[in-house]
Write a structure and sequence with these properties.
384 residues; 19 helices; mainly alpha; single chain; 0% strand
Length: 384
């Protein structure tokens, strides 16, 4: 099999969600054919293996392969492999929540793409940098990067350069831009942009991106309290995500469905069911932050049901994860919630214990708002 057909076969497996088949195909090819004497092909196949492991959320295994490729970069004549490796590393660091490392990798990716004059990779770099800034809430920087990416996408589409890839890239970057509209409360712009993106990806058969699009539309409908529409889009996203073995999207959908059923009070049994799925899938993916928030939501739910023992158990599970991840803002909320519940139980000793822990932490991170909150409640407790 020549190299072009080999790569096409691998990409078809990945596009169709046949991730295990792609992995086995590459492993068998590496075993049956001596490709070690062809460095470019050898490292290209390993780059695809890393992408497969990333899609299966086996992040450390993927990173190990990618770091080996970077150590051997002087042996590689095909610069696309280096560019693709930096792209994958940034993806993984973002998915693991290592945003500073992801930004650093992305800068290296963009610089390298500029060095080799690859407009497509530059557009990908700008687009993914836009997503990183979107993730940390820096919307002006996110918008600037995405507009640069979209400008390059349009240029390549007009020139028919990597046409299908450029159209997919354009749709992806428009989707990120729609998310900025959503976060800024520009709902009409967000709806129009998402609908446009969905049409593009449906015409291209981009199932991975479509799953993201449906999930984002679910988020938008949840934001404007169109509960039934939100559920419809989440269910479409979940069906595609499961078919493509797209676990990160699956996790995001469970988070969305949990939110819809809790906020709308439509079906609290389903709210609990989907929150438990967040915990289950989040543990598999190593998403400690999302698992911690799921336990927190369960705690508040049980508090509202006046099942205080279960509420405390879930909040303590959340606390353990938040301490490990040093997610201090949510940890302050947990201390406050635990203190409140113990007050309801008239357990002044434990209430004071958690409010005091919250006060100490808020002083450590110099959060004046939280310092005031904890001081006020402790003053009340001490006067009892």
């Amino acid at each position: 099999m020549n190299e072009e057909n080999l790569i096409s076969t691998i990409e078809n497996f990945i596009d169709n969600g046949e991730i295990d088949q792609a992995e086995h195909f590459i492993a068998k090819y590496l075993e049956d054919d001596d490709v070690s004497s062809e460095p470019d092909l050898f490292f290209m196949l390993h780059m695809y293996l890393a992408e497969i492991f990333r899609r299966k959320s086996r992040f450390e295994k993927a990173k190990k392969i990618l770091h080996k490729i970077m150590l051997s970069k002087n042996q590689i004549s095909n610069k696309f492999i280096i560019s693709g490796t930096l792209n994958e590393l940034s993806h993984i660091e973002r998915l693991q929540g290592n945003l500073n490392k992801a930004i650093e990798c992305r800068k290296r990716h963009i610089d390298f793409a500029r060095e080799i004059g690859d407009d497509y990779e530059i557009a990908v770099g700008y687009g993914e940098m836009g997503l990183l800034y979107l993730t940390i809430g820096n919307f002006p920087e996110a918008k600037t990067r995405l507009e640069k990416a979209i400008e390059l996408d349009k240029k390549m589409i007009r020139s028919s350069i990597k046409l299908r890839d450029s159209e997919s890239s354009y749709a992806c970057h428009l989707g990120y831009l729609a998310n900025i509209h959503l976060h800024l409360g520009e709902y009409d712009n967000a709806i129009d942009t998402f609908n446009h993106v969905i049409k593009i990806n449906e015409s291209l058969g981009n199932k991975w991106l479509l799953a993201d699009n449906y999930q984002n539309m679910g988020n938008l409908c949840q934001e404007i309290e169109k509960w039934d529409d939100a559920i419809k889009y989440y269910e479409k996203a979940l069906k595609l995500a499961k078919k493509q073995n797209y676990r990160n999207c699956e996790l995001s959908v469970y988070i969305g469905l949990s939110g819809v059923y809790f906020k709308s009070q439509k079906d609290l049994t389903k709210a609990i069911k989907y929150t438990q799925m967040v915990i289950k899938v989040g543990k598999v993916l190593g998403s400690k932050h999302q698992v911690a928030l799921a336990y927190k939501n369960m705690g508040i739910f049980y508090e509202n049901q006046k099942e205080y023992s279960k509420a405390i158990d879930n909040l303590l599970l959340s606390k353990e994860l938040l301490v490990v991840s040093e997610d201090f803002q949510y940890l302050l909320e947990i201390f406050y919630d635990l203190g409140r519940i113990y007050l309801k139980l008239e357990d002044i000793k434990n209430a004071e214990f958690y409010f005091q822990k919250g006060l100490n932490l808020s002083k450590d991170i110099d959060s004046k708002e939280w310092i005031d909150n904890f001081l006020k409640i402790l003053k009340i407790i001490l006067s009892i």
